[in-house]
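Input record (one chain):
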Amino acid sequence: MASEKFSIKSGEKVMLSEGTHGIDMKLTPSDDALQPCSSYFWDAPQLPSEDMYPFTTDENNNKFPMQFICQINCEDLPDNDRLPKRGMLWFFGEIDYFLGYDVKQPYGLGKWPEHAVRVIYADVALSNLKRVNPFQEDDMIPPHAITFSEGPERREGFRLLGNPYEEDVDNEFGTGWVQLLQLDTDANDYFDLRFYDMGLLYLMINVDQLQEGIFSRIQPYMTSL
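The corresponding structure, as predicted from the sequence alone:
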């Protein structure tokens, strides 16, 4: 069963540091990225069950699967005091338009509604995971393996934790919010992710909810440089 809560230290609360280093993510296209329980971007997620895959609805109440962004095996991460030590995190979002798919642009600059993204955490037996793909196989972005490394508090690129690359985003949210995931514009031979003109998409989370392991309320925020 999926759970949206975790205990950072056997049920014990820990105080989060005021400032924290971010975790940089280097993406490398590789078929080996789909090894069981690995951390990777794109393609399709490995889930405990098919019914965990999130869907969204359009203005006519038609259901569509959300775009899969990445899955993170928490055991792969550098030491940190903010994310679970084990289990999996999956990220989904309505970013199809910004990946170049022929769909209506759902949202623009600034805050997006919370339902525009979905983050799922599950502390499950990783051997029970299986690839779930609700899309056509010939329309998939190739999987990209992730190399994690500790980075500075603020930097452009694909990142976990740290602070948003743009300080104005900090000012917009104020205290009590931290960055969970940062997606940057990136155009290459394998995918073309463009948030307008060299923009970024930040997935922000309330500090208290992060400390409790509650990932059900994420606030997306898009900018354009």
